[in-house]
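Quick one: structure for this chain?
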Amino acid sequence: MTKKKNTVWAVCFTFAGAELLKKLLKDGKPGGTEVSAWKKGSGPWPKDCRFKDIKTSLTEWMGEAFKEAGGILVIGAAGIAVRAASPWIRDKFQDPAMVVMDEKGKFAVPVLSGHWGRANELASRLADISGGTAVITTATDVEKRFAVDVFAEKNGLWISDRQAAKQVSADILAGIPVKVASAFPQEGALPMGCESVPYGREEKEVPKDCGRQGSFVVISVFGSKPGEVPEGKVRALYLVPRLVTLGIGCRKDMDPGKLKEQVMAVLEESGIWPEAVEAVATIDLKEQEPALLSLCREMGWKLKSFSAGELKAVRGEFAHSDFVEQTTGVGNVCERAAVLAGGGQLIVKKQQRFGVTVAAALRPWTVKWNRTEKRKNPMEACQVQPVGDGEFYTYVNQTKMRRGITTGTCAAAAAAAAAASLLEGRSPEQVMILTPKGLRLSVPVFCYERGRDWVSCCVRKDAGDDPDVTDGTIIKVLVSRDPERGKESTDEKTEPVQTGRWYEYREEEISLYLRGGKGIGLVTRAGLSCPPGMWAINPVPRQMIFRQAADALGRTGEKGPLYITVSAPDGENLASRTFNPQLGIQGGISILGTSGIVEPMSQSALIETIRLEIRQRAEEGERILLATPGNYGWHFIREFLALSAEDAVKCSNFIGETIDLAVQYGFREMLLVGHAGKLIKAAAGVMNTHSSMADGRMECLAAWAGACNAGAERINRILSAVTVDEALGILEEQEGLREAVMEKVMEQIAKHLKHRAGERLAIEAVLFTNDRGILGETAGAKGMMEQVRRHR
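Got it. Here's what it folds into:
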């Protein structure tokens, strides 16, 4: 079972111990930690005590806690805890945090893994609740010195050499200077006992001037494995951030072991630590490739996939292959995917070997020496109203994930700070924002600039756990009394588009004006929530920005006018990796957000993009909505149905939502063209075809094969098939069976699609595979295809 790092197993032995544990649990999660409460003994216990009983020995229970929990709390004698834990203790990097408290709560003593496991931190939090004292005994804490393992854990850095890490702490405590070389920019002063030296890739083991004394710390994704230490030198300790994205392409049905071997060889030849890799990126045609899935599962890497259109939109100089372009629709997969997913620059160009292509991109990062926790979460920084942990987190496929803030919330926060600075003379480091979702957030603000009649400041976008391409980008807002000052921020555009007009806001005598600046897109097509010729600042963010500026005017009694300019210095570059070009938004990103909150995994963002495309089609007068889940469908529509693929809305996995939106925007007819690998799921009533939601493809084919007189042996083979193509091949072994099954499948698809669409939308479907062409059509599909051709 996977260890749950944020879960603490707690045990008590007496009535008083149970009362203390109840007190610690009163707020549900002490310090944001999940607690599993246990008791051992015959009691008596408090009447309302619902703790679980330990039915094994304490030593056996402790063994389970070591495997499953990130922390252990024992309310009782330290000797009991130590004896029970002793068979399971390994080292401080693997052991869970263990804290012992007396039953009165006077003392909380970290016993195991004070730094790496955060037992010191847990003890302090528990002591705060109980009103007691945390008894911290680790030397670096007592001496108030830098602890490299704490710094690494809190910043998400992998430690290359545990012995070297111990030596770093020993040197600092002994007063021996520790040299630090960083491949990344650094903010803040280095800790006491550390001194900076230049970083060089060639210095993989030791600095040339380090000598016999003093440890050497290197912060980089490049390095070498611990080995022999040259005489007169010291071994380097590498602190490795997870910042590298690998772009990978491979042959179909490749052996997983071979793929891993080639990928690891590229990393070794490039000098990149495997621990520096955070994700693998590829084209969506390969998102279900077993070898890729196996590699990511084994290495703990995320897998991200993109359409050919998204990859083609990435700017830069990349290797090109005509064969790859003919096969996938884009001339390079690995380099483009790495850059698009990682948001950084290529550090390893395309490496081709034995049917595998690999590239690597490194995203930007800064070492912050004064950082006391992982990336600051603006939603947790300050809670004006007490709200639960659940407000800021959501669960996606049983995984707890952190929400983020939209570009609209960023702009509103920056507008609030800039207006306060201009009108009231104060420059807050954080501002409170009440989002439309009802969450009150504290958002950090930085980089104030000011002149005689203007102030500007910035907010950095925090997308939480969502893979948003705008995560980390800077949103800058300038508030001025002079309209010409705001216009200056558009002058820096490398390819200026038409000048957008001001949005206006009036409330009683207050006058406000809003426009976009550098990196904010201009709308050129109808059908969006912003009219053509206006800046892509959506209605809800506009109202949030205006509200903040109006409140500042209200506090000072001024009436304005104020002129507000929102810009995004890297917006034009980022826009090429969004859907803005397809939507007719030129020159930059959009300021978005209806709730002010980013939900993880981009599901809501994808549905919003589908909604915008459907709305545009409706406003452009199209009568029949043509939709397909992905690139296979686009290619098939163009090559085999002789229709314009550019007119098709790409609905991804969201078939049900696309049907709902077609009804909402008044379409009377809809043609859905889909690859059998996805669309067969609709025969079982599945309207979200993502593999994490549901499958049922083989079960559906097997059931209808049985209904069409297939034998038990054939049915079992279909159920064991890995792909739809394999299952279709099994059906084709029996003459006429595939055709009979497809007829039944299409009847079921028609039934479920029409049930979802209702009476207002006539919907037809075409099912195909790349090798076999059309497998089936609903009754009216041919007629609807002819209508589409005529109207297009």
